[in-house]
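If your schedule permits, I should be very grateful for your opinion on a structural question. I would ask you to consider whether the tokens describe a fold that such a sequence might reasonably adopt. Thank you for your consideration; the sequence and its tokens are set out here.
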Amino acid sequence: MEARARDGTNDVKRTFDARDVRAALRAVDVLDAYGIEHRAYGSQLATQQCPSCGQRSRRNVYVDNETGAFHCKAHDCRGDIFALVAGFAGLDIQRDFARVVDVAAEIARLTPSTRVVERARHSATRMTSSTPSMPTVWRMLSRCDERGEDYLRRRGIDPDGLRSAGDIVRYTRNNEPCAALRDLKTGVIVGVQRRRIDLVAGGEPRVLALRGSRVAGTALVGRVAELTADGRDVAIVCEGLADALVATVAWPSCVVFGSPGADSLSRVAAAVAPRVAAIGGWLLVVADDDDAGVRGAANAIVAAERAGLTLDRDLRLVDLDGAHDLADAWRVGWRWCWPDGRRS
């Protein structure tokens, strides 16, 4: 069913009925899709990230998991689940409502051909249906995919190099590259993130977690237990799926920890830095050159220093020579030079 934009001021059409999308979507799906760290308190999810006013210093943004209604107690921001999606996607809820509904449908894993009754059944059974464990989901994904690998090559990422580094990347049936989300404490795969390759320039969300994934308290690719004093003593904390894949190729002898989002950089660094300090290793922080990335990098440095590391000694902020992110820098020929002859 197609419908006009909410305010009726333009002719933009959307593919999905907002009522069907609302029925199929939970707030946790939205938070996980955008890598927003959160904690559950009954039916409420608490986070520091407000979709309206941005990062808060405390976890005082509350979202009802079933309805998606949110309330930021700092500035009294309020909204429904579509406002939640719009805020994190950088869209205007009034002007871009048709697009907001389509983005929400993508997060809910709906397709235009899904009948209304099937959507309702999906909504009713999503909490109780039997699903494979996330390690099983990961194993079921393909190790090779021609179209997905072509996408990586266009971004300057060598899929053969990733394969030689281990079980780093897999692919969905839609050719999308994926990386495993691992619990920072146990190293167990608790989720999978996928990179959409069918987006037009500027489209959102670019990265989504597969249904059933847990994002909070995780990092992409690496495990803390892999850090050892005998040759694997350097940790790379970077932002996002693409950068995590690039970092694996750029630093093949290091352990890569990809943050699911910019606001998670500090939590990843806080989990990794104590191990780095204990083995006398190094921690490199790589962040995007935007407001969220700069803020995330600053918080990651503070977290690492609290664990005993020292900036510009065993803690380094990687300079990408003006590139937006590591993937962009790598594609145009940037390469890391180890200071003080630390590495060749």
